[in-house]
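Good day; I would like, with your permission, to put a structural problem before you. The record follows directly beneath this note:
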Amino acid sequence: MAWFKKDPLTAGKDTRVRIPEGLWVKCEDCKEILSQPELTQNLNVCPRCQHHFRLGARARVDSLVDPGSFEEWDAALRSLDPLEFKDQKSYADRLRAARKASGMEEALLSGTARIGGHPASLSVMEFGFMGGSMGSAVGEKVTRAIERALATRIPFIAVTCSGGARMQESALSLMQMAKTSAALGRLARAGLPYISILTDPTTGGVTASYAMLGDIQIAEPKALIGFAGPRVIQDTIRQELPAGFQRSEFLLEHGFVDMIVERKNLRPVLIQLLGYFADAAAEPAHP
């Protein structure tokens, strides 16, 4: 039995402290509790263990380009539902939900910008829109961004974060693998550089097409990069996989990526690379 008297002002009232939703985040790696404002200020990288959380497409663009220089293209381009696909929900309903949740029309943001004063054409994936899956509209936006680089003779930069092809579009989605790869072939023949930035996760049809065709392959730390996931592969071959399999560090060791760059250093590295490409293009041709 409690020996103290109840406060008549609080009797019968819920006096628990209310913490606003989304104010605190638990790090997936070190399990520390982080404040969301601190995490946002640090580009969604844990200040304790440097774990790289996913970063939305618009925040990604803001972190890379010169302030005020980004000009979005093909903003209204969106996937339709030609197959009238339905599983537990209709594809049309899933698209509406994804647009509402992400604030974007599709799973990719594209446009032109300057990075350290150097012009570039960009395509940046939004994982929050149906897992960054590549459907017809995403493939078309990537292709148009490549073609814009060709038309204006500027470098092309892609940031990937994807679960792969969009199953609700079936073969129409798989066709985007060939289309984007063919466009990059034209870019290569024109002698224009392509920088591919692989973030967690980059998997499926995106990995099997344009994501791995960069002249320079950059990965963020510990990003999952591969076609099928490690669990699927292990169950298929019935063998234990090497430690760190399909992570950035494993791919760097085996020659699949050229460098691993922490998020805070991506912009300086891009400025350096774009400056090198600009100097190389300006050099007179040798007889």
